[in-house]
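Design job #97: recover the sequence.
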């Protein structure tokens, strides 16, 4: 979070909801309950709603959109088998646009 300037002491002054969304996005906590669905080294591209954090790799396939409670929608999990995700997350249907409540969008390179 610090590298993306989402730490509490950062210049962005990220609030608690933004920090929660960031942590859940980085760890692929789709359900928002602390269960990670990724492993170190899994490639993923992330972009924030304000456009201040942009990926350094291609964005080819929409993974998810993220808010403070986890994934708001999910198309293509970065690592996990979709059947292993223990909560219901609606599909994004490939729509990568940002909307209300979306802090992050993740894409697979």
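Job complete. Output follows.
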């Amino acid at each position: 979070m610090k590298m993306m300037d989402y730490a509490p002491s950062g210049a962005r002054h990220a609030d608690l909801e933004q920090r929660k969304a960031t942590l859940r996005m980085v760890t692929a906590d789709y359900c928002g309950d602390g269960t990670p669905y990724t492993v170190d080294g899994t490639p993923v591209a992330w972009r924030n709603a304000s456009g201040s954090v942009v990926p350094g790799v291609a964005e080819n396939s929409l993974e998810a959109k993220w808010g403070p409670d986890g994934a708001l929608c999910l198309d293509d999990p970065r690592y996990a088998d979709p059947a292993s995700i223990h909560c219901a997350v609606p599909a994004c249907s490939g729509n990568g646009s940002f909307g209300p409540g979306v802090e992050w969008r993740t894409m697979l390179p």
